[in-house]
Amino acid sequence: MDAIRAFMGIGSVGGVIEVDEAFFRESFKGNHRKNTTFTIPRKVHKRGVKGSYSSKDEKRKRGISKEQVCVLCAMDITGNLITELICKGRMKHTDLERLFTGRIEDEAILCTDSHKSYIQFAQNLGVELQQIKRGKHKEGIYHITTY
């Protein structure tokens, strides 16, 4: 996460761009001493206390929820990279627009998974969209697992 933080807000991509998101459990472990303005937004969970869950548990809710953060990664064919935490829970086209505005070249082709937010995002930005069907990683010359 420190490597991602070092590159936040910089970089641009163009040409054929592979875009994918990953979800991580939100964690504030270790942050309370590093940042004096940091406040923990939820009750701390301790082991062995009735009604809490241990750090071994994945999360309380199944599927994608506000307990997870969405990190988006976009890389073009020349190796230019954008990677940032974009939201908590499910991403929306507005989250994508906020990340990519001014950072994506004209005439770009986005290769993405089948998430519906990419459709509205591509229409709003006027870029070509190649979505790969669920369960697949490649469709013709377009893929989302090269880089």
From TrEMBL:
Alphabetized NCBIfam families for the sequence: transpos_IS1595
Stored InterPro entries: Tnp_ISXO2-like
Highest rank taxon of the organism: Bacteria
The ISXO2-like transposase domain, residue ranges: 12-146
Protein name per Swiss-Prot or TrEMBL: ISXO2-like transposase domain protein
Organism: Clostridium oryzae
